[in-house]
Amino acid sequence: MTAVPFGRGVRIAGTGRAVPAEELTNKDLEKIVDTSDEWIQQRTGIKARRRANDSETVFSLGRDALLKALAHSGINASDLDMIIVASVSGEMICPSTAARISEAVGADEAAVFDLAAACSGFLYGMNLADTMIRCGRAKNIAVIGVEVLTRLVDWSDRSVSIIFGDGAGAAIFTADPDPSKGCIHQTMHGDGRLWRTLYHPKLDRDVPAGDEANPIRLGHLRMHGREIYKFAVTRFQEAIREALDATGMKVDDVQQYICHQSNIRIIESAIEKLQLPADRVYINIDRYGNTSAASIPICLDELLEAKTIGPGKPIILVAFGAGVTWASCVWNM
Ligand code: ACO
Fold first, then answer.
1. Would the CB of 119 count as within 6 Å of ligand 1?
2. pLDDT on residue 1
3. Model pLDDT, residue 214
4. Which of 87, 158, 298, 300 is 20 to 30 Å from the Cα of 319, by its Cα?
5. Catalytic residue check, 299
6. Residues with pLDDT less than 50, the chain
7. Is 332 annotated in the active site?
8. Is 97 in a helix, a strand, or coil?
9. Distance between CA 32 and CA 274 in Å, rounded?
10. How remote is the CA of residue 219 from the centroid of ligand 1, in Å?
11. Which domains does the chain have, with CATH numbers?
């Protein structure tokens, strides 16, 4: 791994995204499960999501997002010191998806591992990348957030199948001589006591005592949506408040808020409670649904592509997910 001097800053050299071709609208879902376009839009803000076909995988979407990020960054794959793949839906546990992606892009000697922090996974990875680069242990790190959760849902379970979508986003982080660039505040939290609110049981023994209620569909995601919702609303607001307080900023001092796209009502309640400037809170859940670990990097890529964000005021990123996990990052572009 390349060593660079301590005290460097970090910048985002390039980002990329890859989403499946098939768009599954709420109207399409009405034909699969007892639901309505109106209910889904009202309760979640989702209009459509992407769904992977048999040949679109966590591996292929992650690889494609990374190739785009590399092209935008001007950095060669062979110069990557590390590839972190944030995902909970990879095709194989062994080897890591990161290992297979490193071979596919030609990052032959990069350190590779997968990171399972669900929807907070990309932010966990981004925070780790910043720290590794800043302290001189690495120079170039790729973080990919990618999920194909539509393969894990029970399509007859309307409380879960309407939420999730598939996709991938990637970012290349690199050392910068200006130490003020990059992460100026970060948090990574967890509370394992709440893991039962969202899990993926494969065998009977995976189902925790007290959660045997029908229907338990092994091989499919089991989600207690209302509990997650309550937890998420509180943690989301706390994480943003904490980030503002720690950096001494007011809500208007932030150029953009990039929130995990879980449910529009969770984001709207943070806007209302904290009086955030709504035009600076990015929303794309209407087009993609909840893409878990891919949500934040897809937002980041769209915002950079549209040149909505750039040097100037910091951005705040915040996510929560299964585990439960939550994380934040205040970033100077
Ligand atoms: N269509 C129509 N009606 C529905 C649907 C549906 N798709 N789903 C539930 N309902 C009904 C229920 O049966 C219930 O009816 P009842 O009152 O007659 O019993 C009613 O709507 C309300 O059900 P709730 O479960 O309370 O619905 P809620 O408003 O909480 O919305 C949702 C459900 C959207 C899942 C919400 O709880 C949520 O967004 N939770 C957070 C989920 C989340 O973020 N999960 C991802 C974590 S990320 C990760 O790490 C992968």
1. yes
2. 45
3. 62
4. 158
5. no
6. 1-5
7. no
8. helix
9. 38
10. 20
11. 9-179 (3.40.47.10), 183-332 (3.40.47.10)
